[in-house]
Amino acid sequence: MKNTLRIGTALIGLTLASMAATAAAQTVEIGGTTLDLGESRADTLAIANAQFDVSPTGTSGHYNLYPKPRAGDSWDTPRGPAIGSLTLEDGRLVRVTHNLGSFRSEDAEAAIENLIAAFDRAPASGERPSVHTDRAGSGQGGTSRVYFSYPDRVIQIVIYRPDFEGGMATIDITEQYALRGGSRPQSTPMAE
């Protein structure tokens, strides 16, 4: 009876460990390619090399991913910015970074610094923001928004894209506070 109980307990433990390992596996999509965190180095690099121009960086196990050259590109055609990177440690894929975009200007630098500062000021009591997105369009353009709602504020990122050709997108980042129902601050996504 004791041996049966021990074997049963061991099988349950192995099953739970197997389920946890399966649940811990994470699939990441980058540039139309799917990679599995925890995948072997060889398999990861085989998949990456088939889809991207993979370039090692100065850091061991770190690779930048660039779009493959297009037919007709010459050797001196600029390849553009990296679309992301891979980090391999102990023979496994441990990190995939997807570059979401970058822009260079004094206004952009100030906006991003202010965004980081707004998140720094967010409640540090372990509260996580609720995140909401929406999109709207009209005859003149389209607007996309993401709201990070905390108990006392909303941090909002808005992108407005005009429909007319040559119109540059406008990106606004705001931190909003509102008093509602007396003196208690509450946050809800607010219109511009």
From TrEMBL:
Keywords: Signal. The keyword Signal applies. It comes from the Bacteria. Residues 124-144 are annotated as: Disordered. Residues 1-23 form the signal peptide. The keyword Signal applies. This is Uncharacterized protein.
